[in-house]
């Protein structure tokens, strides 16, 4: 079995893989938008759009910038962005039986 020197400790390669996988699983369980091996393109895009809308609504400077660009008041812009978070990319595509 191959060992690697990390921080003055010898660690087996299998231990490194286990540690990396467990850290990745904990990140996926903590943060819903990080994806996983079976995430579809639509799900990934939905997470990206929701994160963007949440960031704009949560930062007053960004919300004001978008409100000026759309020629709307800030409250109306925030309200519309929160509503867009429900289905930011439209309805999910129908699953195909090709797989």
UniProtKB/TrEMBL annotation:
Superkingdom, natural source: Eukaryota
TM spans (from-to): none
UniProt GO BP: mRNA splicing, via spliceosome
A single cellular component GO annotation: U2 snRNP
InterPro entries, per the entry: SF3b5/RDS3-10, Splicing_factor_3B_subunit_5
Family from the record: Belongs to the SF3B5 family.
Descriptive protein name: Splicing factor subunit
Biological source species: Filobasidium floriforme
């Amino acid at each position: 079995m191959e060992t690697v020197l990390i921080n003055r400790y010898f660690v087996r390669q299998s231990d490194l893989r286990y540690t990396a996988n467990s850290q990745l699983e904990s990140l996926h369980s903590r943060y819903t938008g990080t994806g996983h091996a079976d995430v579809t393109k639509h799900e990934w895009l939905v997470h990206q759009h929701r994160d963007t809308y949440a960031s704009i609504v949560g930062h007053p400077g960004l919300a004001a910038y978008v409100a000026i660009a759309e020629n709307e008041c800030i409250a109306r812009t925030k309200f519309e962005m929160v509503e867009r978070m429900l289905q930011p990319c439209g309805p999910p595509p129908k699953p195909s039986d090709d797989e």
